[in-house]
Amino acid sequence: MTTAAPAPAPGTAPVPARVPAWAAVLRTEARLFSREPGSLFWILLFPTLLMTILGLIPSFREASDDIGGRRVIDLYVPVAVLLAVIMAGLQAMPPVLAGYRERGILRRMSTTPVRPSVLLSAQLALHGVAALASAVLALAVGRVAFGVALPGQPAGYVLAMLLTTASALALGATVCAVSRNQKVATAVGSVIFFPSMFTSGVWLPVQTMPGTLQRIVEFTPLGAASQALDRAAAGSWPAWTDLGVTGLWAVLLTAAAVRWFRWE
């Protein structure tokens, strides 16, 4: 025989269901993340702002035979997408994770039922979502303001974007793993940040680099990602070599971050 649960007393509200620990951590981290205007600006707005400034240069809106009849601004939309994941992975996330370790937050969490990995996963998810939102914004502004065509191979573009985001965040996690504190994480992230901007094509699109330099850059995670995104944007399936290089970097950097990361 089953017994019905007693009804709540008049004038009292029913006790709400317990929120899962991971959901509570994610909600708290999202609230803290939303209170960081600097991170939000550099991840969400700066890539599109830079692309817009470059798009206002008249010569960048003219077709060039040197790049297959396309315009320079057509190449810079994928670059803006890459810049978003670079900002998230190297500038925004490492200081946060290193700060948690430096202040003993991860060590204290290790004594509770909520594992530190839940907190780290929440940070990875939030920065990944922010980078993807920035990519959507760059695509939309490029289309509306400069007539840049949307990716001609959407499935390939999404796959390349996911691999790119994974490799950039894994690189940021590795920076955090080898950094003793927040200041070191910021310094190391900045040292890697500028070469990453070069290999992703921020200063010079990878497609316009000299042959030898382009082949070297294509073996870096962001150089390969730039080529994969550009081919998908042009309507072709990304080369499996570029996808493989980007994915391999994501796996290797993730393994390195797991191997070297310390909770305290």
TrEMBL record:
Domain of life, per lineage: Bacteria
Record keyword Cell membrane present: yes
Keyword check for Cell membrane: yes
InterPro entries registered for this protein in UniProt: ABC-2_transporter, ABC2_TM, ABC2_TM_bact-type, ABC_2_transport
Cell location: Cell membrane; Membrane
Chain segments annotated as transmembrane: 40-60, 75-97, 118-142, 154-177, 184-204, 243-261
Domain ABC transmembrane type-2, residue spans: 38-264
Entry membrane topology: Multi-pass membrane protein
Keyword set, alphabetical order: Antibiotic resistance, Cell membrane, Membrane, Transmembrane, Transmembrane helix, Transport
Similarity section: Belongs to the ABC-2 integral membrane protein family.
Name of this chain's protein: Transport permease protein
UniProt lineage: Bacteria, Bacillati, Actinomycetota, Actinomycetes, Kitasatosporales
